[in-house]
Specification:
By secondary structure, the protein is of the alpha+beta class. It contains four helices and seven strands. The protein is 29% helix and 35% strand. The protein binds coenzyme A.
């Protein structure tokens, strides 16, 4: 997408990021204090996507240091900006930073009915390793996926 900029999220972005999180996950969004915690954590990688100074999405992961594992917590793109490669750019940038920081394995959980996200992760060579029964609530399974980064 022309003019797309990926950069580190800051504390000042918190309100905007929380609005996007609520828009993307109306029923089970992360609470604002948890997003704040993820922004300020020293072992997190929190990246935002901007177009002409408007924040249109973000990705956040945590590096679990002793295990060289990077866990992706959230990936959100505002509805008006979807299917333009924004999530793919965010995921690529996160994986690059994971690798720079010595992460060997990327891990994530995704709703088993979330076709858009499942397609994206499959395109990026993530493979399913486990079904997580009722992970997102009653009758809402999750799928744990992983990818070797080395
Ligand atoms: C999932 C999500 C992040 C994808 O964002 P996006 O910027 O639209 O994704 P991209 O444009 O980078 O798409 C990359 C690939 O993902 C897949 N994909 C994305 N959206 C899709 C859709 N609606 N249907 C099917 N496949 C889709 C495709 O393989 C796509 O490649 P293509 O466009 O060449 O076919 C976005 O739909 C979103 O924010 N959804 C709500 C929050 C969410 O579910 N996050 C994921 C949590 S695990």
């Amino acid at each position: 997408m022309d003019g797309l900029v990926i950069e580190r999220a800051k504390k000042e972005d918190l309100n905007t990021l929380y609005q996007i999180e609520k828009e993307c996950f109306p029923q089970n969004s992360f609470p604002k204090p948890f997003l704040k915690f993820l922004i300020i954590q020293h072992n997190s990688v929190f990246l935002k996507a901007k177009i002409r100074d408007e924040v249109i999405g973000f990705i956040v992961g945590i590096i679990q240091v002793p295990y060289s594992v990077g866990r992706i917590y959230s990936l959100d793109v505002k509805p008006d900006f979807r299917r333009k490669g924004v999530a793919a750019s965010l995921l690529q940038a996160l994986e690059n930073e994971f690798k720079q920081k010595g992460v060997n394995v990327s891990l994530l959980e995704v709703d088993a009915t979330n076709t858009a996200a499942l397609n994206l992760y499959q395109k990026f060579s993530y493979r399913p390793i486990r079904v997580l029964k009722n992970y997102y609530g009653k009758q809402r399974d999750g799928i744990k996926m992983t990818k070797n980064l080395i």
